Every structure is written in structure tokens, then in C-alpha cells.
Amino acid sequence: MTLLKAAIIGGGNIADNNHIPALKQLSEQVEIVAVCSRDLNKSRALADKHAIAHAFADTAELYRQCAPDLVVICTPNYLHYPQTMEALEQGCHVFCEKPPALAAQNARDMANLATSKGLTLAYNFQLRQTSEWALLMRCKTDGLLGSIYHIKAHFLRRRGIPGWGYFTNKAMQGGGALMDLGVHVLDLALCALDYPTPDQVLGNTYDFIGKAGGKGLMGSWNPATFEVEDASTAYITFPNKASIMLSASFALNTQSDKDRNLEIFGSKGGVKLFPFTLHTELAGELADVQFPYLEETDIQLKNTAAFLDACQGKPSTVCTGEQGAILQEIIERIYQSAER
Amino acid sequence: MTLLKAAIIGGGNIADNNHIPALKQLSEQVEIVAVCSRDLNKSRALADKHAIAHAFADTAELYRQCAPDLVVICTPNYLHYPQTMEALEQGCHVFCEKPPALAAQNARDMANLATSKGLTLAYNFQLRQTSEWALLMRCKTDGLLGSIYHIKAHFLRRRGIPGWGYFTNKAMQGGGALMDLGVHVLDLALCALDYPTPDQVLGNTYDFIGKAGGKGLMGSWNPATFEVEDASTAYITFPNKASIMLSASFALNTQSDKDRNLEIFGSKGGVKLFPFTLHTELAGELADVQFPYLEETDIQLKNTAAFLDACQGKPSTVCTGEQGAILQEIIERIYQSAER
Amino acid sequence: MTLLKAAIIGGGNIADNNHIPALKQLSEQVEIVAVCSRDLNKSRALADKHAIAHAFADTAELYRQCAPDLVVICTPNYLHYPQTMEALEQGCHVFCEKPPALAAQNARDMANLATSKGLTLAYNFQLRQTSEWALLMRCKTDGLLGSIYHIKAHFLRRRGIPGWGYFTNKAMQGGGALMDLGVHVLDLALCALDYPTPDQVLGNTYDFIGKAGGKGLMGSWNPATFEVEDASTAYITFPNKASIMLSASFALNTQSDKDRNLEIFGSKGGVKLFPFTLHTELAGELADVQFPYLEETDIQLKNTAAFLDACQGKPSTVCTGEQGAILQEIIERIYQSAER
Amino acid sequence: MTLLKAAIIGGGNIADNNHIPALKQLSEQVEIVAVCSRDLNKSRALADKHAIAHAFADTAELYRQCAPDLVVICTPNYLHYPQTMEALEQGCHVFCEKPPALAAQNARDMANLATSKGLTLAYNFQLRQTSEWALLMRCKTDGLLGSIYHIKAHFLRRRGIPGWGYFTNKAMQGGGALMDLGVHVLDLALCALDYPTPDQVLGNTYDFIGKAGGKGLMGSWNPATFEVEDASTAYITFPNKASIMLSASFALNTQSDKDRNLEIFGSKGGVKLFPFTLHTELAGELADVQFPYLEETDIQLKNTAAFLDACQGKPSTVCTGEQGAILQEIIERIYQSAER
Amino acid sequence: MTLLKAAIIGGGNIADNNHIPALKQLSEQVEIVAVCSRDLNKSRALADKHAIAHAFADTAELYRQCAPDLVVICTPNYLHYPQTMEALEQGCHVFCEKPPALAAQNARDMANLATSKGLTLAYNFQLRQTSEWALLMRCKTDGLLGSIYHIKAHFLRRRGIPGWGYFTNKAMQGGGALMDLGVHVLDLALCALDYPTPDQVLGNTYDFIGKAGGKGLMGSWNPATFEVEDASTAYITFPNKASIMLSASFALNTQSDKDRNLEIFGSKGGVKLFPFTLHTELAGELADVQFPYLEETDIQLKNTAAFLDACQGKPSTVCTGEQGAILQEIIERIYQSAER
Amino acid sequence: MTLLKAAIIGGGNIADNNHIPALKQLSEQVEIVAVCSRDLNKSRALADKHAIAHAFADTAELYRQCAPDLVVICTPNYLHYPQTMEALEQGCHVFCEKPPALAAQNARDMANLATSKGLTLAYNFQLRQTSEWALLMRCKTDGLLGSIYHIKAHFLRRRGIPGWGYFTNKAMQGGGALMDLGVHVLDLALCALDYPTPDQVLGNTYDFIGKAGGKGLMGSWNPATFEVEDASTAYITFPNKASIMLSASFALNTQSDKDRNLEIFGSKGGVKLFPFTLHTELAGELADVQFPYLEETDIQLKNTAAFLDACQGKPSTVCTGEQGAILQEIIERIYQSAER
User: Fold this and answer.
1) Which residues form the GFO/IDH/MocA-like oxidoreductase domain (chains A, B, C, D, E, F) (predicted)?
2) Of A25, D66, E226, F277, which is the most exposed, with the fewest CB atoms less than 10 Å away?
């Protein structure tokens, strides 16, 4: 089988530690032919470190010289849209970091272009590859949950405003806790509901702690340049009357330093995802089921493999361009609701 | 001091076990002069048991013969409105069971009539009298919470559809889990926010389990006559951007058989109500504060005493007619939203 | 419906506290017409206490005067056989305390006579009526366990040699821990296997601690008159290759003061009875299922009701005369094996 | 002191990771002069890795060229007998992996030949070297246990059918869970009783799960080629009336993924081995004794050292050829009993 | 046997709930003939309640009319000395509440008078009768502790200043936490050391919290009239170099609301009293021994019985007059040290 | 900025693993120019390992050739005094290991000489740099504790007599558990009280276990050459009536193998140091405050940095020469008291 040629766009940690190692473990299917970062030195250092043939500072040059089959985009959020559009125009499959884009229309355009070009566009929501999520989807398929009608999803940090990167810069990131953390659990919640288009969306954002400053648990942040929400809550309804309650925070006066979970309520059974527990009836009695031997898996490796499956037309669990567009629309409506 | 003359309307458990015993413990302020129940035999038995002078089957008769200063209304929900209006017209203070009424306009009319008559109208939300709630309000007053901007409130039963009474009858109760359980924690959440008028309200109701039947933990229920929601969720926003997430259930595939709690998030501190825990910063470090010696109190006794305080023009923590009208409006808007 | 007439034979604690109260709760089906104890004073006192019409010291007199439909035998073990035979000869259904008899042949004769007379003979193994056992049998019926092939059953006390009664008297009781405690869990194990006739039986009995004396947790015992086994272990196999490991002790150097449990291993699932836990596979993963809301029940009331069902030809979960004969044979073979 | 010359027969994991490292740590007493594996390449690679002078594919060649003082046999079970006999004939002490052999007569012949040759034959049951077992034997010697009369021994895995090696091949391994796991705890139980010859043996074997397939926790196995028992239980009695209850499983619907323990019941005290707890009487009260500071030890190193002690005529705790013959007889009788 | 005639002096709770019920349970040895309280009405009510023949307001009258064999003194601390002296002069054995007196010289005089009269004088330190203390003394006798050389003893309440009685009145009580609580654990510590005369005594008392006021857990106290110490600590040495560290508090910013314990350190073993744990070496390893089945006992009944034993010249575990004198001397020296 | 020149005196573990690595991490302020150990080979090896320019066996030579600005003294206790005096005479700042000296007068002389020379003398009590202690001092400063009036401090090992070094040699170490362990927690206790001069000191030392021998948890020790105390307890009072209870042990029959903690009692709040818990009143209720996110820090690095701050005249938390003199006086008075 011919190897797929892959290029990496973006030279930061997520390229170095997540995407490149995952692709290299899948060397029977794919070969990394180039990396591209605005800073050519950084680009070259990364190529050297991972024994990648080419390094670029300019994507146009990359496409011209290497003609990759697929690109992985791991740049700051504001670049996802233009770089994805360019890659699709160049005939490449695209594996883009989350969130899809800054604006809903952008994500819609990205999905439409991929479809019209017959290319795969996917987003890197790796939590889909946890053993817990795989089990949830199997329980759903096996009918153990019945109809799912309500989901509580949260990704809360107590004082986890990152002390590095652009996380508090609104222009580059598009938002704060919702954009960075909330999207992960919202994507899962939407999967459980078969990714429906939302009916109504109501939400709020807050920035009391971010703007006041204080003790940080993920480094120190500067309250003077804190531009995004430190917390967001939302309620989303769907035409079939299902609903999602969503909470995300960089900073909140809550118990745990990091608390990420979903509760999925169905007519036959309900699940708490971490640790996975199924609440149902069995043999005529109320039963709580635990699964003590779920395996920890390399979720990035599995998600990258799922993307490659999609590129090759196989069934895949990766987040599609279409799903990304729906997700981005919900995010945008939450922010709009918060500004009413 | 002259004793206030009290009459009890409604002869069920809540009269027998809650209101009459509480009033009798407050015998330095109040004397129960009559009970009134549709069934005269029941009425007389109750009067005999508690050594109350008069028993009636007809409220008009009651007012004519006894001229009470105050009445306690502990009848099914659909009678709260007409009986309260009658009592106010008769010049009586009214202590009415929750929820205020079946419709928002009714609760509004009740509040307005009380105001115009210069009488006290109050609702029996006893959770306000727990030591935990008193401590929450003291923390709020002492500035330990800063600005409160988000509240999660839930009152969830796993399989707690009552196997007795009218709880599944929509015409008499007006609703299910939200009307019976959710109102308690919603009232507290509104107190924490100083009982503002809501901005937007979005919600849903469900009845999968109620209609399917199954194992009950509070007796058995009949799925064939189950007319109300077994669960409801809602999101409520306020002009100052604060928000409430509300969940209530008679039946839900969740872990605990009964789980009733609030999380109150403020800019300086956050509180989980049961067991009371304060999450804040102290001496420059993130701190968790517990209060291991909070007393269990007789919350009905305290709430009845608070009502008597209100009748006598003293400061009181009882739920006022005005607050009841705001609460009922929110309930109604949740049900309306669920029917969209 | 005509009430069944019941007579109680034996005037000790188990009559007073277990059987009489249970029968009186079932007063729509049965009426206690007489009690009979060797000591007429005791007999009369018991009759007075429970408002029973007749008291006897002699069973012949009882049958002559009262002609009961059924008798409950709650005398020491060595009387079970003669009194049951007499009652059956008198045409009465018999509800006999456990163990069935001192010898296997006796239990066999009792079963045969009941059969030939067309009467109900049953033994009072109340653990069959626990919610846990009912659930085990439902799991078995629903196929959740597959083929059951091995059972570990134990009823162990650390220092529970009773300081009262005849428990250490071999002639009256027939044995010690196995006869008094082991029979309970052996009966359950046999039920789980559909009460097969055993293939091979191997066992041992011990009396080190009973004969040495020491600290007692159920009163003090006299090592000088200790005649029975303080512990017994056995292994029983069946024609279908299933097997039971049985342990029983009045005294053993083990952790708990009282430890009574069964583990039932099947091809599809395994169960630990107390607290009830099911170990199986679900949705392709190893799963542990707990049932947190099993009810505590009045097991004597349920077992007496089951006996009455049997008397009336209804399906019943009570231990039959035939089962008692199989059980007694196993007990006898364990004691014989221990004496090899 | 002259160094003993050792040869390793078998080139698998247990040679590589256990025996060779242990012997190298004992370099003041012993020198490894050769390794021998059927596959000469494997043999040479192992010799190179551990800096051993010679590598062979043929044992005859090994003996001819190297004339070792002792050999360590770590080949599959079916080779233990012929290779041990050859080694003894060559005048070598033998340290053989467990179990001794496939048949009881073989183990008996091995023991007899060693005795007649005046050589040491020992089996590698390393659990004897745990701190817990050493403490058990000290408690026994100090009289803290009195007479030991019953032992429960189990080595249970929930889904631990190895996904590698020959563990499910009956011809090569001679059996399944009993042969591979049960022997370890049976050896300990026999030690506690001073290794008596058994009186009666009754047992069963099962293969429901192994033949049905399912989720594995030690790799995946092939149910189609599963030829051995996945579980076995047995009861063994001795002339002094002591008894052992034995359970072993590769697969069983039980709670723990791996549960290996012994309970030793004596007239003065009882011990649960892991974690070591002594149940006894002290100062006239029932007492539970724990030993919180037992050391973890390198049990292979200690057992190899014990073998070298035996070779040099010193007191030793290693399992002797004579003990191995008794053990193998019990194993054989369990399998015979299961086939009745 | 002739019954001893007992009189009760003091009509408060401790007479009513502790001493009278205990004496009545010992009716084969003793008969209560009279009660005496300053308030004759109170005295008569108590006599009536317990069916006691005589009631007095004046002790002289009591002695004249009833000539008791023994008296139980349960009046406030300041009356212990004069009433004990009077009783001894009247030829009565005396069972006096703790502490012995307000001053060391008083306690010395009381002991001397009892000795010279040949009468029993004892103090009611009931903790000596707990199962734990009995076991401690047995361990000591059996040599399990070796030489005892250091004891930590504490009786700490977090906010346990009693809201009733005279506990904060220095003139009537003689002191606070040390006098009321510390004496109990000091008495035990002295018992463990065979009640030696102290060598050096150093201590302190504090009253910060008592004088500041705040939240009470045993009722509310008045900081304005708080005259005693709310906490005291001390160090006591003995001629044999043993030492005691003592802490007592009514109020202290510590974790538990009530924490009462002793740690006894000996050369062979150390004991923590509640729950009783022995730390020692066994079979060559460090061992922790627990005694899970110690019985809860009626410690007042046992202590009263011990007093009666002493009166009848039998061996007794009750606190003697001589011991009380040593104890009181230590208390006095702690207070003196605190005032340096 | 010019680098300070540092010399290391003493070539053992604490130089190698603690002081040299800490100084090298502070390379912007300080440069290690020499090491000096009695054994020149050891000295050179250490210098080579850490790339230090000079190695000496003689301190005089060191001072002559290198003229350091500061020296770190990490030799056995008996050398602290002469080597510190020499260093100060040479005009060097001194960072000396704990304890300050063998005698109080020596520590006083060391402090006086440093003062008169205008040099920094400091002792290496690193526990002052734990996050817990920093938080304690912040709580104190913020007034959360009020007046501190009693401290319990202990550093207890169950069987932790070191099996290496000079720890049991009285002439070289000056003492045992108190000198080696007790000083750490005593220094903290004195800090909490602002390092007052003591009023009274009473103490004891014991050596039962050390002289008897037994199981060791930090290697084996030789009871025949055990010259120091294995445990010491003391009580120290101060002019302001505050008091300290101190306990230290190498060996004690207690629960934990290592237990090091302080309880600090103040009028407004009390603190248990590990894990840090504050007991106080908040919002009118008794409150327990925990700080779940305190960081583990490199306490040697922080303490060395604090010493450098002191050398440079900045505020510092290091233990000063003056404090060391007070501490040593208390230690000496405890030993004197124990010998009375």
C-alpha cells in the first residue's frame, strides 16, 4: 500500500508531543513529509528532532514542494479557518485541532468546501477515544440506555487559567473556558444525541475571578490582560426535546481543581462517565453497574488512526467537518446569548 | 399579649404532623381555634386529637363562627388560590403551603390582594430554616461570597414517585417533580440572588420512566394514570447576568435515591450547601472550609415562627406573597418553554 | 374462606417470638387454636400471652380435642422426627423447625409419609425469604448466571458457642455447628442447584476450641460438657459435576464474629450474596453489578406464608419434605466421612 | 571456596528474568557456565546478553563440554521429567521449575533417583520466601497457632487466561489453573501441615468460560484451542484429620482480577496470609494482630539461595524432591477425581 | 447477709441518674435509707421518685435518725471536704464524687481521718471500670508493657464549657477544665504508674476563649462571669523518672468536639487506650494488636460495686482516699505552677 | 553583581546531596570555590563530581588559599563550634548544620562573635521553608490565630534508630532523639512564639528500647554501643505564660513509623501543621479550614536562598545565630533536667 504523505502545520507543543508521535506510530499508513511553522528555525528544529525531511515557514511553499495528501493543523484558533480552506483548496485531507474556528459561518464554509471537494475534514476531539466513551456508545447501541433525553456536561477548573500561551487573548482564541474546555464535553454530549441541530440556546459568561486575579494552579495569569470568560454555563435544547446543560470554567469557586464529566440520562439507563457507572434496572431491581477493568488508552493515537480511517473511506469515530459546523454554531449562539 | 387566633384549612398529614404541632409549640403567641376539612368526620377527629375547640367542613362557616386572625392552608395545590383569596377577603393573614398556586396570575392576584388589605401572605418553604441556609445567608452578608453569579440547584429522586396522594394528577397538582420538589430549591436559589425578576427562562419536562413504570422506592405508582412530568430541567437568567440551572425529578436513572443540593458560585467564594462547604481563598491560598457542628433544627417550627413574626410586623425570613408570585411566574414559564 | 386451624408444638423462644407472631399476622388464612409444651404451666402462659384458646402438655390430647389442620413443630431437634410422624398420622400438615431430624432415614420416612398421606411437610429455612435470595433466584431464572457449577457456602462464628439451650448436647441436637448453622447455607446452595441428590461427600469436624474453652461472644460455655463439633468443613459433588464447599463454625480463629455468605459461580455470572453483587460481562466489558435498594423483609412472616401457600396447593418457596430428606442425607454423610 | 558451575536449560522469560539474575547476584557461590535452548540462536542471544560463556541447543552436548555442578530447568512442564532425570544421571543437582512433572509417578521417580544419587533436587516455589510465609512459619514454631487443622487456599484470576505461551495446551502443560496456579498455594498449605501424605482427595475441574471466550485481562485467548480446566476446586484430608480446601482459576466470575491467599486455622490462632493477620486471644480477650512493617523481598533471589544452601548440605526452606512427589500425587488425584 | 444502709447527700443529676440507680441494682448488698439535699422539697421529690424512706435537708438530722453505714456525697466540689469529714466522724464509709476537694491539705486530712477511723473513703473515678482500662491493667500485669516510663493523657473539649451548673464559678468548683476533666485521665495515668508521689510538677492555665465568648457546643456560657481556666497543660515527673504529659480543656481551637485518651509507653509495649491498641513486637516483628470485641459496660454500676467491695474489705479497683490525696496534691501544684 | 565565594566544610551526604546542589541552583548569587574534608581523597572526589575548583583536608589551608565570603559547615555536631568560630574569625558568613553546638555556652559564643564581627551566622532548619510553615506564619500575621499560648510539638519514630553514622555516639553527637530530631520541631515552635527566652524547662530522657535492641526500621543498631536517649519529652514555659510540650524519639512503642507534627493553639484559631488545618470560628460557626493545594517545595533550596538573603542584609526566614543560642540553651536545660 502506498503511504499517505502528511504535513504538519504549526510547530508548538501539540504538534511536537501529540500529532507527530501519533503519526509516527502509524507508519504503515502514513509518512510525515514536512512541518511548517511561521518561525523557520522552530520549524527546522522540529523537523530535525523527528527526522522529517522538509521544514517550511510558508504554507504555499509547502504545498508547492511537497504536495501532501493530508495536513494536520495545530496552530492557534484564529488560523484554523484560513489554513483549512487553503489545504482543502490544495486537495488535502485536513485534521484540524479544536475548536473548528472562531465563527460559525467559517466552520460551515470549511465543511461545505470539504464536501464539495470530496475530502475528509476532521477535528481532533480525542475524548471520543477514551474507553469510557467507547463503552457509552456500545451501551447506547445495545439499548441499555433507551432514549437519551438529558445530558449534564461540565469541564471545570478551580484556578486553571493557563499561565502560558494565548489562552486569555480574545482575538486569537475567540473565547475562554467555553472555547477551550467546554467544546470537548459538548462534542461528546452531541455524539450521544447523534449530533442534532439545536433548537434553542441560552447561556452566560463570567469573568469575575479572571479579572480580579489570585492564586493560580496552572501558573500565574495577568488579570490586567484577561479578556475572555473564566466561566460559562449554557442550556441547549433540540427538536426531539432532548436537552444539554453545559458548564465550563478556567476559574470557579468549586471543590476540585479539575472536574470533567458527563451524566447521560436515558429512559432505560443513565451513565456517569468518569468513573463509568450505569444506573438501570436489572432482574426487577434498581442496579448500579461498574466496569472495573476499563483500559487506559493512547487517545491521540486512536483519534489519529480514526482520522486516517476516514481519509480511506472506512467507518470512523472522528469528529467530521459537518459535526464541527454544528458544534461551532452552538458555541456562537452561547456567546451571543451571553451578550444579550 | 393577646393570642392570635389561628384556623387550619385542610385535614391531611401536613396539617396533622407539621402545622398543628408547630403552632402548639408557639402557644405564647397563637391559639388554634378551628380546623376545617371537606370531610367533617376527618375534621372532628383532627380537632379531638389536638384538643382544638371547633371543627368545620365549610370555610364560610368557619369564618362566621370563629373570625380567626390567621389561617394555615394545607390543602391540595388547586385549592391554594381560592382559599387564600377567601381568607384575605375575610381579613386573615395567610400561611399557605407550597407551591403558591397553579398559575402565575393567581399567585400575582394573591400577592396583590394581601398587599392591598395590609395582610401577611406567606408560603411554607421550610428549607429556608435549615442551619445550612442560615449560614449561607450569613456568609453572603459578611461578604465571604462576593457577587453571586451562578447557582446550580437540584432536587432529584431516582424512583421517588409517591405511591400515595395526588402527586401524579395534573389537574389537582398542576405538575410533577418541578411543582412538588423543584420549587423548594428554586426558592432558595432566588433568595441567594435577592429574589430578582427573571429575564429569560428555558426548560424541558420528561415522563419516560413515569409512563413506563418499574420499581418504586416510595411505594408503587400506576404508569397508566401518570399525567405529570417525572423530571424537569431549566435554565433561568436575570437582568444582572446571574443564572440558575435547575433540575428536579421524581424518577431519573441517577445514583442516589434522593439528592437535594445547591451550589452557589460567587466572585469571592462558592458554597456547596449539603454538607455546607465554602470554597474560597484565605491567607493567600485556596481554602476549603467546613462547619462540622451545624445543628439540626425543627425547620417547620422555625418557619411557622417566622410567619408569626411577619404577621406582627417583625423582620422575617418567611417566603412572602410577592416572592411567591415571582417564583410561580418562573415555574409557569418553564412549563411553557417545555411545551414549545 | 374457612380459616385453617393451627397448633403449636413446643413452647420456647422460637414459638413465642417467631412462629406465633407470624401466624397471627396471617389471620385471614389461619387461626392458632392450641399450644402444646411438656410443661403445662409454660404452655398455658404462652396461650394466655397470645390469646390462644387451648393449652396442652400432651400432643395426643391436643389432637383429640382440637383436630388441627396443621401443626408447627418448634421443639429440640431430637423430637422433630416422632412429633412430625405423629402429626402426619393425625392428618395434619407440618411446618417443622430445622434441621429435619437427627438421622437421614428419619427425614426420608417423614417425607414418604407426607407424600403417601397427601399432606404438606415443610422445614423452616427462612433465609430463602431474604431479598438477596429472591434476587439470586430471579437472576438464575433470567439466565444471568448461565450454568451454576460451584458454590462456596459458609456460616462462621468466631466465638459463638451459645451459652444457653442444648446446643452443645450431642444426644439432643445431633451435632454442632454443621447441624445448627451449616444447614441454613447448605439448603440455599442446594436450591441454587435445583436440589440434586449428591454424588460424593467428604468432610471433617473439629472441636479444639470448644473443648479448650475461652472467651465467648454469645455467653460462656462449659468446655467440660462440650460434646459436638465446633467447626466442620465439607466438599460435596453432584452428578452434573457441580460442587459445593461448605464451612460452618461455632468457634474458629477467624476475623469476623459472624460471617454468613454464599458465592455462586456460573458460566455467565457469579454472585456474592451479602451484599448482593453480580460479577458478569456487559456490553463486552467485565461488569460488577450492585443492587443498593434491596429491602429488608420479615423473613419468618414470608416463610410462614410460603408454608400456607404449600398447604393450599399453591406454588411455594418453602423447603419441602423431599428436599429436607436430601439435605439430611448430606449432613449424615459429612458426619460419617468425618468419623472415617 | 570453589564456585559451583551452573547451567540453565530453557531459554524463555523465566530463565532470562528470574533465574539468571538471581544466580548472578549470588556470584560468590555460583557461576553460570552455559545456557541451553532448543533454538540455538535464542540460546546464544541469551548467553550474550548475560555474558555467559557457552550456548547449546542440545543438553547432551552441554553435559559433555561443561560438566556443570547444577542445572536449572525452566522449560515447559512436559520436559521437567526427562530433563531432570538426565541431569541427575549426569550427577548434577537440579533446580526445576514448578510443577514437578505431568504425572505423579514421574515426580516419584525423580525424587528417588536424586536420593539414590545423593543429589539435591528442588522445585522453585518462591512464595515460600515471602516475608508473610516466613512469619507464618515463625508463628507456628513459637506456638502461636497451636495445632493447625484446616486451611483454605486459593489462587483465583477473574479473566487471567494468559494470551501467550502454552498455558491452554494440555499435552505440554498437563493441566490448567490447578497445574499452573493452584500448585503454589497447595505447596504452602502442605508446608504448614509439615507435608503429610494425603488421606482422601476429592475435586472438580471446569472449563465453561475458557471454552466460551470473552474479555481477557491477561491478553486474549482462543476458546477453540482451550484444552485445560479454567477452574478447579478440591478438598484434601490427612490422617491426622487436618484438611485443605483448594481453589484455583484462570477464569471465574468473581470480584478480583487476582486473588491469592491462604487462611490457616489452628487451635490457638488463625492467620490470613495477605495481608498477614493473626486472630487469637491475648490477655484474656480476642485479639487481631497486624504486622505493618513486613518487608517486600526478592523472593526468587531468596529461593535460589535456599537451593544453593541445600546443594551445600545446609538447612534450607526450598521445596524438596520428596515434597514435590507428594504434591504431584495430590494434583493427579484431583484430576482423577474430577474425571470420575 | 445484713444489708448495708446507704444515704445520699446531694440531690442533683448525678445522684438521680448515676448513684441511686447503681445502688438499687446492688440491692442484695445495700439499701438506700435516706437522701439529703439543702432544699427539702427537692430531697423529698427524689426520695419519692426512687421509693426511698427518708428525706432530709440537714445532714445532722440524717445521721441522728438513720445512722447509715455509708454515705454517697454528690454535692458541688466545695462541700466534699466538710461533708466527708462529718460522715467519717459519724462512722460512715464515704463514696465521694470527684475531685476529692478544693485543697490538697483537705484531701490529705480526709484520707488520714478515714485511716484512723478504719473506714473506707473512695472517690468516683468511673473510667477505671471501662473494659479498656481493665485490659490495660491486665496487659501490665501480664508483662506485655514492660516498664512504663511515659504517659500522655488528655481530655479536651473544643467548645464544651457547660451552659448549666457551677462549672465556671471558681469559689464553688476550685477550678475549670483541669479540676473537672483533667482529674479523670490523671487518675488513670497515676494508676498505670502504681500511684507514685510526684517529683516535679510544672503547668499552665489559660482562659482566652472562656473570657472572649463565642459558639458553645454544650450550651451557651457567659464570658463575663467566667472565672476558671478553659484549658490547662502540665508535666509531672516521678522519682523513678517516669513522666506524665497532661492536657485538659473546656475550650480549645482543636479538631474534635471531645477527645479523651491516654497513650501509655512502656519498654515492651505501648498502648493507645481508645480504641485500645497495643504496639509491640511479636514473633520478631513489629506488631499492632487490636481487640475488636471489648464490651461496653455500665461503669457507674461497676464502680459502685467496687466501692462496696472496699467497704467489705475485699480487693477493689476503686480510687482510695490515699490516692485521692496524691491526686489532689498534683492538681494543686499545677495551679500553683501556673500562677508563678 | 559579584558572586559570593562559598566553601563547603564537611564531605558527607548532606554536603553532597543538599548544600552543594542548592548552592549550584543559586549560581547567579554564589560560586562554590572549595570543599574541605578531613579525608583529602573524599574531598577531591566531591570537588570533581561537582566541578568545584579546590579541595582541601585542612580548613586553615582553605582560608589561606581561597578567602571565601561564606562557608557551609556540614560536619558532625561536635565540630560545629570550633569550625564556626574559625570561619567567623576568618571573616566569613557561616551557614551551619543543626544543632548549633553541643553546649549552650558554645552557641552563645558563636552568636556573639558573629554579631561583633558583623557577619551572618545561620543554622539549617529547613522545615521553616515548607509551604505549611509559610502558611502558618501568614495566618499568624493576618491575625487568624490571635495570641498563641500553647504548642504541642513532636518528632517521633517507632524504630528509627539509624543503622549508620554516629547517631548513637554521645561524645560526637551530644545526644540522641532530642538533639537530632526534636530540635527541628522545637525551632518551629519557638518561631511561632517569636523566639522568646524560656522561663522554666522540665524534661526527661529514656533509653529502654535503644539499650534492649530489636527490630529496626532504619537499619539495625547495636544496643551494646547505644549511648544516647532513644526518647525525650519536655515542657517549656515562657514569661508570657505560653508553653511548649515537646516529644522526640528514635524508638517508641507508638503507632506510626514516623510522625512529625505541631499543633499551635491560639486564642482565635488553632493549627495542625501536617496536613495544614485551621480550627477557628467563621460567620459565627465553628469552622475547619483546609488548604488542599499547598505546594511541595525544595526546602533546602529555599533555606539556602534565605541564608544568602541574610548575608546580603535582606529580610530572611533563616534561623539566626541568636535564635540558635536560645534553642541550644533549651536543649541543654532539658538534658540537665533529665539528669536531676
Assistant:
1) 142-271
2) A25
Distances from the Cα of A243 to the Cα of A151, A152, B205, B247, B332, angstroms: 6, 9, 10, 12, 19
Residue C295 touches chain B, beta carbons under 8 Å: no
Phi, psi dihedral angles at B197 (to 5 degrees): -75, 135
Asked whether D185 and D262 are in contact (CB, 8 A), the reply is yes
Using a CB-CB distance cutoff of 8 angstroms, which residues of chain D are in contact with residue C210?
none
Compute the distance between CA of residue C209 and CA of residue F8 in angstroms, rounded to an integer.
68
Q: By the CB < 8 Å criterion, does D281 face chain C?
A: yes
Chain D interface includes E139 (CB < 8 A): yes
Q: Which CATH fold would you assign to the domain A130-296+319-339? A: Dihydrodipicolinate Reductase; domain 2 (3.30.360)
Q: In the structure, what pLDDT confidence band is assigned to residue E1 with cuts at 50, 70 and 90?
A: low
Q: Where in chain C is the domain with CATH 3.30.360.10?
A: 130-296+319-339
Q: What are phi and psi of B307, to 5 degrees?
A: -65, -45
CB proximity E274 to F under 8 Å:
no
Phi, psi of A50 (to 5 degrees): -105, 10
The CA distance from C176 to D306, in Å, is: 45
C-alpha of B225 from chain center: 25
CA distance E274 to chain D (A): 15
ipTM of the complex: 0.95
Chain A CB contacts of B214 below 8 Å = 281
- Kindly state the percentage of chain C with pLDDT values over 70: 100
Question: Tens of pLDDT along A191-241?
Answer: 999 999 999 999 999 999 999 999 999 999 999 999 999 999 999 999 999
Q: Does B290 touch chain F (CB under 8 A)?
A: yes
Q: Give every strand in the sheet of D30-36, ordered side by side.
A: D54-56, D30-36, D4-9, D70-73, D93-96, D121-123, D319-320
CB contacts < 8 Å between A and C, how many?
A: 54
Distance from C-alpha of B307 to C-alpha of B128, rounded to nearest angstrom: 12
Residue tagged 548532606 (cell numbers) = F14
What is this structure's pTM? 0.95
Whether A65 shows a pLDDT value over 70: the answer reads: yes
What's the half-sphere exposure (Cβ side, CA atoms, 13 Å) at B24?
14
Distance CA D279, CA C251 (A): 12
Does E289 contact D289 at a Cβ distance shorter than 8 Å? yes
Which amino acid is present at B56? F
| CATH 3.40.50.720 residue spans of chain B | 4-126
Sorted by sequence, the CB contacts under 8 Å of residue F236 that are 6+ apart come out as: F198, F200, F201, F202, F243, F244, F246, F330, F334
The average pLDDT across E252-268 equals 98
Fill in the DSSP letter of residue C19.
Answer: I
The CATH architecture annotation of domain E4-126 reads 3-Layer(aba) Sandwich (3.40)
* pLDDT the model gives residue C1: 62
* C-beta neighbour count of B194 within 10 angstroms: 11
User: In the complex, which subunits touch C with 3 or more CB pairs below 8 angstroms?
Assistant: A, B, D, E
pLDDT of residue F165: 86
| pLDDT of A165 above 90 | no
Query: Environment class of residue F48 by beta-carbon count within 10 Å: exposed (0-12), middle (13-18) or buried (19+)?
Result: exposed
Q: Which strand (E) or helix (H) includes residue D249?
A: strand D243-249
Q: What is the mean pLDDT of residues D130-144?
A: 97
Q: C200-218, pLDDT tens digit by residue?
A: 999 999 999 999 999 999 9
Q: Nearest-CA distance from E207 to chain C in Å?
A: 47
State how far the Cα of C120 lies from the Cα of C106, in Å rounded to an integer.
17
Asked if B85 and B79 count as a contact pair (C-beta separation under 8 A), the reply is no
The pLDDT tens digits of the residues spanning B105-124 come to: 999 999 999 999 999 999 99
CA distance B263 to chain F (A): 18
Q: What is the pLDDT of residues F321-336, one digit of tens each?
A: 999 999 999 999 999 9
Q: Cis ω on the peptide bond leading into residue E99 (within 30° of 0)?
A: yes
